[in-house]
Fold this sequence. Notes:
Elements: E1 9-10, H1 22-25, E2 66-69, H2 113-121, E3 125-129, H3 137-149, H4 154-159, E4 167-171, E5 179-183, E6 186-190, H5 195-205
Parallel strand pairs: 3-4
Antiparallel strand pairs: 1-2, 2-6, 3-5, 5-6
Helix pairs in contact: 3-5
Amino acid sequence: MPSLGPKPLAFAAIAAAPPLALAVAITVASCSGGGSRGAPGMPPSDAAFRAPRLDAPLHPDARCPVTVDTPPLLPGTHVDVGTDIQWDSNPPSSGPHYPVWADYQAYTSPVPRGYYVHDLEHGAVVLLYNCGDAGCPDVVAALHAASDAIPDDPLCAQAGEGVRVRTVITPDPLLDVPVAAAAWGWTYKADCADTSTLVDFALAHYGQGPEATCANGTDQF
């Protein structure tokens, strides 16, 4: 019987993945209720800024098991803040979300998923960890390295809000792995902090959401 859903992609096989443009070809609900919208003074699409695509196998010698997946895209509808949302992947990579998004920055307390999924819709890469009470400075450092590796985003410079790139770094106690990342339509999961593959994921999938907004949302959750 043929598979009914996407299979996880090991980095060694990622060259066979569908084009990254697939995510932007899917019709989803926008922040304004229809069509793509950017911050004032910004173009409606971030097509002018595309991070390098990765067309070769990625790090089959990663320090630990690393999996990239392409879950089915869910409609990006808005729901009330606090609504219990069920997503089709962990971490979520598309689907219903709150009407406001998280500021593009690093957090030490968890950003609720309903906020950061909205960031994904705006083309952000969200970098996640679940280390429990013990903490994990090596993991957090690897996530910051992935964010730092993304070139300065000219759309964010236009927005004039002090945002360099659209990334969110946050703990997420709902993860089933210690390290994860998400972009619109893509997930990354690892059993350790493997900086090289995190950087490659961030570069490959940055700016691929159906909307392009560099304006900050909120840091009050």
